Structure formats: C-alpha cells, structure tokens
C-alpha cells in the first residue's frame, strides 16, 4: 500500500522540527520498503511556545491534506487532535529521515 508522508525537517536530512514551528514539510511516498521524495510544502509556523490561533493551526493542517501521516520531533495535543480529525496519523520521532522511515515501514 502506498502512503504519503509529511516530514518536518529544517535541513532535509533530520527530523528536527516541532510541528507548530515547522516552516517546511518534505513529502515522501512510501511503498514496499522504498521511499521517494515527492515535493516540499512550505508552511508558516503557527505555534508561539504553546499559544496559537485555531485558524492558523487549521491552515497548517490543510496544507497537508492528502498525507496519510505526519512525522515531527514534537506535536502538541491540539495539533495531534486536529491531524487525527483530518485523517492524518501524527507520529513523534526524531532522527535521520531515512532511518525513521525504514523503521516505520
């Protein structure tokens, strides 16, 4: 089964961004243990150290619609809930993107 995965990374190598602070998400397709980079989605950070506007959170999640999963180093409870409501599985992990994707698939 093909999965579309959004990864929060500042450098394209390491999962090192908090979901609410991320400025970009790398989108990968995962299938049969292989991973292909699809695109880069740029976002505006919406979290201000625990405070955020609900509309800003909604806009961030809407940019990721169509993804099956989001991986970030940290995901707050509000974002976690909104992601699930939109059918996106939230995962908190950090490490090299390739290593984490290999572990998950």
From TrEMBL:
Gene3D superfamilies for this protein:
Dinitrogenase iron-molybdenum cofactor biosynthesis domain
Checking Pfam families in the record gives: Nitro_FeMo-Co
List, for all copies, the residue spans of the domain called Dinitrogenase iron-molybdenum cofactor biosynthesis. Answer: 11-104
Instruction: Show the InterPro entries listed in the entry.
Output: Di-Nase_FeMo-co_biosynth (IPR003731), DiNase_FeMo-co_biosyn_sf (IPR036105), NifX/NifY_domain (IPR051840)
Q: What is this protein called?
A: Predicted Fe-Mo cluster-binding protein, NifX family
- Species of the source: Alkalibacter saccharofermentans DSM 14828
């Amino acid at each position: 089964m093909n999965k579309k995965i959004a990864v929060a990374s500042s450098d394209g190598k390491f999962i090192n961004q908090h979901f609410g602070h991320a400025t970009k998400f790398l989108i990968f397709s995962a299938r049969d243990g292989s991973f292909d980079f699809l695109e880069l989605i740029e976002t505006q950070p919406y979290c201000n150290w625990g405070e955020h506007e609900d509309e800003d959170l909604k806009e961030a999640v809407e940019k990721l619609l169509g993804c099956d999963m989001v991986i970030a180093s940290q995901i707050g409870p509000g974002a976690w809930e909104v992601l699930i409501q939109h059918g996106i599985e939230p995962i908190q992990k950090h490490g090299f993107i390739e290593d984490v994707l290999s572990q998950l698939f």
